[in-house]
């Protein structure tokens, strides 16, 4: 179960998000986005998370195709750490960066609990005045889309599509076509909507379904070095092309690279494998720590901020894993029949 590099990949994806935010929250453009004009390093990291999530949750569903059990396990993976990070962001980080003297007087507990249930980034009174993104934890906005992808997986499973791989592949291609078509037009948090479904949901769903398809066709997709080299070349060229081309390349060439590297076996990679997964904690705490760093040290350079924030967030992520995530995962494993393996998500 641990004979792969998925935890290492997720750690790299979380580091890419912190790297990107270290520039953006100090008022600089992300270096990759400035060079390519299509996608930031942080966006690529988030895409990687959704691709891996699709693969691992498809594995989980195939081992135990029961909707209630599936959703309980997903809730145990997302909610505990999210609740703790939200509380710390609102009750500790928010007051430290408050732009109002009556922070708690203006804060709404009702909105806070509603945001927890929906796994949305917490709403607070005005904070971090002058920041390019005046949010107490802007990273959290993607977590609600992860939840929606889990609900989508449940519907697909109940409809029997998880047993019809070619039908699911067709669905994935249609969703990705929607993501490609809408790419030049999407703006704002929800973006352009198709039949009431937000553009961002279509985009994240295309990443997630790419991972699902790689799981369903895992026995038919050869993961070989020459193919990976070709995929890398096409992927890099796509990054420096248009938004539409990039959105076509990420769930195809990008996903191939993720799973090639994920299954790559070598002595030096084996030494880097970890049983603990610090990626969720890094992702949840990177933004608020970076926001405070930019607030207290506005003259700090992005690269120094990136290293400093990562150094602070690693022990926070470890504490989140040891005290919150791992205990929740033990509950999740207790729900799984002993004769079946457990997906690491």
From TrEMBL:
Transmembrane segments: 37-58, 78-98, 138-159, 166-186, 192-217, 224-242, 302-324
Keywords: Acyltransferase, Membrane, Transferase, Transmembrane, Transmembrane helix
InterPro entries: Acyl_transf_3_dom, Acyltransferase_3
Molecular function terms from GO: acyltransferase activity, transferring groups other than amino-acyl groups
Acyltransferase domain mapped to chain residues: 4-318
Acyltransferase as UniProt keyword: yes
Domain of life, per lineage: Bacteria
Pfam families hit by this protein: Acyl_transf_3
Name the record gives this protein: Acyltransferase
Originating organism: Paraburkholderia tagetis
Classification lineage: Bacteria, Pseudomonadati, Pseudomonadota, Betaproteobacteria, Burkholderiales
